[in-house]
């Protein structure tokens, strides 16, 4: 049995028409008009696929396939449908719509399952609007905290307020936890070049890196750009260039570690005024949390010197995601499935963070990657051909079938879809 590749492809492109940005690509930030339009479209497609659909109290869209009314713990499959600015159409959306397609294929073929299958569109994975992220999957796994809803966007609107304006009830977020969960599986584009370089359409994810997100403010002394001598300045922009150079060089010297300064704001931001203070963001990731700690110890040495030179330093931790090793049993099951689909078996690490990592210590979790052409992602040129989308979706369907037909985790012998 195979999924309907053309239907999956058509849905991807239909969703990709919502939130088209005049500057190119798609911009669909959480709890904006475009995001709400995409959510309503998703609900309609889930219903058309034969799923029972509802939204939870923070806006996660949940489609349930449970024709036999099973009371057992569900198997979860989902991803996100929000985007970064000027995004492509595959990030998050492919995995979510592949789950919908798998469930619809089961229904069309009258496939009964021993466990409920829940397809979930998680809200605010990217976190671009509120500089946070993954509130949907945090809620589902019971890892959301009250302060997660107090983060603000550029206009000073909190995540809680944005949710309330859309009719949700974030004050009752704890009721959105799903417990117990039997297992979770997510399909996603790789967003890198590893699969492409190894000529593999599908990959089995070993694990996901640790991530820390900081907001850094360096404060100096504002002054006239022409009347202040170069040797009598406390210029935070100059200090920032040293800071960025140090953190990027530190990360470059550590295995599987990356550091990115992605947003910079200067104040007052005038051409003829020495900057008073500058605020910027740091996204630092590693497969080994000790490497992140090592980078931060090195940057603290520079920060101490900057303080001695009259630059005040404030570095605030805004967001943290814990790394995760995917479940070994599920990885072995995926290897068998991939072989039966006549695809090369290949394991790789994820370079990006994903909703799946919130399932750490909650339930067994697996991820499947498909090739990203040229490794492009978070840009409008992001692309995965229909053949690879279909290959990944078929592997996902087989995995969901196996998991949803297990009575318990001991009964993990591979099963074949008739």
TrEMBL record:
Asked if the Swiss-Prot or TrEMBL record annotates the protein with the keyword Hydrolase, the reply is yes
Q: Which cofactor does it need?
A: Zn(2+)
Listed binding positions for Zn(2+) 2 are: 91, 126, 378
Cytoplasm as a keyword?
no
Binding site residues for Zn(2+) 1: 80, 91, 188
Give the keywords, sorted: Hydrolase, Metal-binding, Zinc
The residue ranges of the Peptidase M20 dimerisation domain are 214-300
- CDD domains on file: M20_bAS
Q: Name one GO molecular function term.
A: hydrolase activity, acting on carbon-nitrogen (but not peptide) bonds, in linear amidines
- Cofactor: binding comment: Binds 2 Zn(2+) ions per subunit.
SUPFAM superfamilies associated with the record: Bacterial exopeptidase dimerisation domain (SSF55031), Zn-dependent exopeptidases (SSF53187)
Which NCBIfam families does this entry report, sorted A to Z? hydantase (TIGR01879), PRK09290.1-5 (NF006771)
| Family label | Belongs to the peptidase M20 family.
Q: State the protein's name.
A: Zn-dependent hydrolase
């Amino acid at each position: 049995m195979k999924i309907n590749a053309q239907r999956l492809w058509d849905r991807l492109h239909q969703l990709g028409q919502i939130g088209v940005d005049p500057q190119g690509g798609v911009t669909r930030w959480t709890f904006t008009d475009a995001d709400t339009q995409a959510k309503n479209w998703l609900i309609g497609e889930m219903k058309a696929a034969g799923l029972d659909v509802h939204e939870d109290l923070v806006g996660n869209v949940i489609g349930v396939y449970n024709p036999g009314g099973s009371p057992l713990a569900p198997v979860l499959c989902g991803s996100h449908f929000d985007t970064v600015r000027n995004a492509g159409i595959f990030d998050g959306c492919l995995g979510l719509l592949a789950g919908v397609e798998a469930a619809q294929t089961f229904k069309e073929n009258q496939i009964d399952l021993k466990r409920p299958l829940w397809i979930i569109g998680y809200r605010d994975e990217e976190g671009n609007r509120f500089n946070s992220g993954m509130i949907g999957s945090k809620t589902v796994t019971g890892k959301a905290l009250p302060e997660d809803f107090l983060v603000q966007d550029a206009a000073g609107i909190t995540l809680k307020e944005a949710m309330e304006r859309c009719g949700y009830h974030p004050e009752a977020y704890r009721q959105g936890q799903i417990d117990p969960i039997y297992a979770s599986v997510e399909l996603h584009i790789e967003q890198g070049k590893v699969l492409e370089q190894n000529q593999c359409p599908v990959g089995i994810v070993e694990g996901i890196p640790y991530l820390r997100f900081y907001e850094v403010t360096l404060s100096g002394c504002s002054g006239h750009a022409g009347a202040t001598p170069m040797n009598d300045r406390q210029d935070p922009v100059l200090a920032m260039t040293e800071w960025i150079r140090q953190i990027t060089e530190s990360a470059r010297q550590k295995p599987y570690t990356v550091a990115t300064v992605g947003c910079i704001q200067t104040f007052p931001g005038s051409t003829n005024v020495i900057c008073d203070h500058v605020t910027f963001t740091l996204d630092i990731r590693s497969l080994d949390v000790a490497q992140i700690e090592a980078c931060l110890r090195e940057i603290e040495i520079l920060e101490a010197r900057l303080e001695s030179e009259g630059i005040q330093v404030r570095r605030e931790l805004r967001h943290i995601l814990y790394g995760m090793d995917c479940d070994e049993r599920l990885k072995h099951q995926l290897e068998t499935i991939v072989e039966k689909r006549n695809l090369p078996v290949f394991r790789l690490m994820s370079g990006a963070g994903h909703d799946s990592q919130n399932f750490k210590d909650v339930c067994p979790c697996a991820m499947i990657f498909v090739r990203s052409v040229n490794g492009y992602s978070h840009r409008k040129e992001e692309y995965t051909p229909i053949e690879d989308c279909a290959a990944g979706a078929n592997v996902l369907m087989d995995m969901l079938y196996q998991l949803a037909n297990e009575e318990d985790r001991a009964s993990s012998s591979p099963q074949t879809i008739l």
